[in-house]
Every structure is written in structure tokens, then in C-alpha cells.
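Justification of computing resources. Each target in the renewal requires a structure prediction run like the one illustrated here; the chain below, 460 residues long, is used simply to show the kind of job we budget for.
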Amino acid sequence: MRKFDAIVIGSGQGGVPLAKKLAKAGWQTAIVEKRWIGGTCINDGCTPTKSMIASGAAAHIIANSQEWGITVSDYKVDLEKIVARKNKVVQSFREGATKGMEKTQGLSIIYGEAVFNGDKTLSVKLQDGGQEEIAAEHIFINTGTLPSIPPIPGLDTVNYLTNTTIMELTKLPTHLMVLGSGYVGLEFGQLFRRLGCQVTIIDKNKQLLQHEDEDVAVAVKKVMETSGVTMFSSANVQKVEQTGEAIRLQLTANGETHAITGSHLLVAAGRTPQSKSLQPEKTGLALDEKGYIPVNDKLETNVPGIYALGDVKGGPAFTHISYNDHLVIYKNLIHMENVSIKDRPIPYCMFTDPQLGRVGLTEKEAKAAGYKVKVACLDMTRVARAIETGNTQGFMKAVIDSNTDKLLGVAILGPEGGEVMSALQLAMLGGLTVTQLKEMIFAHPLYAESINNLFMTLDK
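Resulting C-alpha cells:
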């Protein structure tokens, strides 16, 4: 058995930097990866999806070029080349992360699947067919999540797609059906619609994007429908069946029965943690009812010395949160600081077009928390930069504490919505008031300049 000071299980956006920093701090460290370095973000999530979404944006501009006074007589979507470009970007990111770890002294990379076999000991089934036993006083779990597959009759008999396998297609679907209207479903739905596919999105909830305010969700739905995507809400899929090369769904939505036939089916119905396969009970590690690993505000589990970071611990499932998790752990263990995950800002962005950038409290969350709020809204049709570029879908919304004149949260549904949101996040962290933002000088004519106009709406 090899003994280390630290073992990191999983090489996602939290695991890789943590392993490197622990090794550089003098800890003999091992990182165990069962597949590829980089985790979901590089291999299956952020990097590949945003690379493909860029191709969808190019197709959209070409298809609608006459709006900008340009006529394109004909164009062709080559999905095989789009996927090849995506794979090239992914490969470069993956190789960069791998080389960075290989150069780190004191860091051992073990390719294989780890399971607990005792108190802080692990058995690793190596990719080359061997087996290795390892142990450490400090273990960090960064194993992430996998797609959830709902128990719909017949679903297991059809060739459905997940967020990973849909990016391996080299031939465009004629009709893509999507189960779920979260970020994965909406981003892929709009992407494949822009590439020329018929797209139908089916969701069990009455409101898509359940965590957002209703006005934001309604505006996002309008964006999708304007893109040509068919939306079914309050839908219950009763049966899935293969009919030749096609897939047929039977469902009820808003009291009506529907039968939908498509060429491909994407299951985007949430995520499930990769935790039970670790055999956590053998080291006394507790899981919650959904299989996530509960942690305290320092990211330590119920077993002292074992930590969980990233999506596997539950909570906000974003790459940047996983990265911040590693900073919390590193600062507390190496620099003996007292950093907590409590009350940290949770910014995020959905990469539909237009983007939805969000940080802080929604209006309904702020009211539920007892704040006296005022709300500023500005339609993108009143934003100079949006008018000039021809991108006027969406609106800006800010939730303000009436007692302090400070921001509680913002939602920016618009072009570069994530960038504008980030500017307002900095304002929130800096404690700027709405009056200061209303009077601040921004370069003209940026999207960020509309921050002035957003808060001028309160004067009315």
C-alpha cells in the first residue's frame, strides 16, 4: 500500500488546482482519475458546449444576415466539422491541464477507479488492468455528477442521448426532442434549432427555470419560442417507444394528450452524484437521501479529514463554485485561515442567446427573506448598444434593498448578459449604492452603460 499526505479523487475544476497546490506546499499528493483529466467542465460541459454554441451563433447570423443588410444566398451546416472543432478545443484544454499536473513535483497521477475499502484507504482499479491500494489522512472527493435518467416506461428501450453523447453526433437530427428545460435542455435545444433541426422541449414543471422569478422565466420561454423551439410545460411523459428509426413519446400537457415522434431524444432531466460507487460506507462517510455528500461550511464531511468539493456535495452545480471550493480548503489547511462557504456570492450564466446572467437574490427570495424591496427593470429594446447591434431580446432586472439603496440581486437576460451581471456583482461586493451606479460614468456605447438607464427607471 502506498501512503500519501493527501488523495484527491476526481480531476475536475476543484480537484486539479487543489492537488497541485497541496503538492507544491510539500504534501505528497495523489490524484485519481477514472477517465480523462479535466472533469465534466473540460470534457463534457462548459468547454465543448460553448464551442458548439459558437457554431450555432454563426449559423444564426448567416441565416438572418438580411437583417443587417447582408444577403447570403446559401450556406451549409457541417456537423462533423463542428464536432471536430469542438474536439480540438477540448483536447487542447485537457492536454494543458494534464501537462500542468505532470510537471508538478510531489504529485502522482493514478488513472483508475477508486473505491473505499477501509478507514481512509482506497482500492484503485487501474486503467491498465492492475490494482493498487492507497491511503492518506486527508482525502478530497471531487467526483461530480452524471445525468439522471427518469423512470419513464420504455425509456430504457430506446437509444436516448445525454449531454455527453449528443455532442458525438455527426449527422443532424431531423427532429430533436428534449426531456427537461434546465440549462442543458435549453442550451442544446436552441443550438440544434439554429443548426436547422426541428426541436421540441418537454418539461414536467409549469414554469421553466424553477429557481428564477416568473417574469425572467416567461422572457426566456419567449426567447426559445422565437427561436422556433416548440415548448410543452406541465407535461407528463407516459410512454417512450422506438418505432423503426424514430422515437415516439406519449404525454399529457395542460390536460391535453399528445403523441410526438422525433428522430432523436435528449434526456436532460437533472443530475445525480457519483458517490455510491465509491462505497463510502466502508470509511463511514454519510450520504443524504439523494446521494450527495453533506459537508460543513469548511467543506469537511462527517469523517474528519475527508472533504467533498464540487457538484458531488450538492448545492450550486457550477464550475466556478467547484474552483472556489478548492480555495476554501487550501487556505484553511495550508494557511490556517478560517474561510467559509457561507454567504459567498453565487453568480451564474446560462449560455442561450441572449445569455441569462444571475447573481444574488431573486425578487421572490428577497421578499421571502423579509427585505423591503424595490425593483428596477429595463427592456433591451431601450438599450442603445442592443438596438445598434440588432440584439434586443430580453430585459435587465435589479432587486434593491429599499432601506440601504444597495443591490440584493440582478438578472440580465440580454446580449453579453453574463458580462453585465459580473459588473453588477462587483458593485454588490463593493457595497455601491443604486444612486452611485445610476450616476457612474461608463464608456459609450457599451451594454454596461445601460446600468445607468436601468436605475434611472426608479425615478419614474
